[in-house]
Amino acid sequence: MKKMLLILGAALAGVPGEEQPAFEGRPLSAWVEQLRAGDAPAREAAARALGQMGPRARPAVPQLVEALRDSSPPVRQGSACALGLIGPDAKEAVPALQKVLEDPEAEVRTNAAYALCQMGPDARPAVSSLIQALKDENERVRHHAINALGAIGPEAKEAMPELIRALWDPHRPIRASAARSITRIGETRAAGEALLKDLKAGDPAARSGAARALGSFQASEIRGVSIPALQEGLKDPDNGVRRSAALALGQLGEAGSALPALLEALKAEPAEVRKDAAAVLGYVGRDGEAAMGAAIVPRLVEALLQDKDPEVRSASAASLGLIRSVAAAAVVPSLLKAFRDEDARVRAGAAASLGEIGPEAEPAVPALLERIQDESSAVRSAAATALGNIGPAARPAEGVLIDALVGDESPEVRMQAAGALGLIGPKDGKKAAQALMRALKEPDARVRRDAAYALEDIGAEEEAVLAALIQSLGDSSAEVRKAAANVLGSLGSGEAAPALTRALKDADEEVREAAAKALQYIEGRE
Question: How far apart are CA 22 and CA 50, in angstroms?
Answer without folding.
Answer: 9
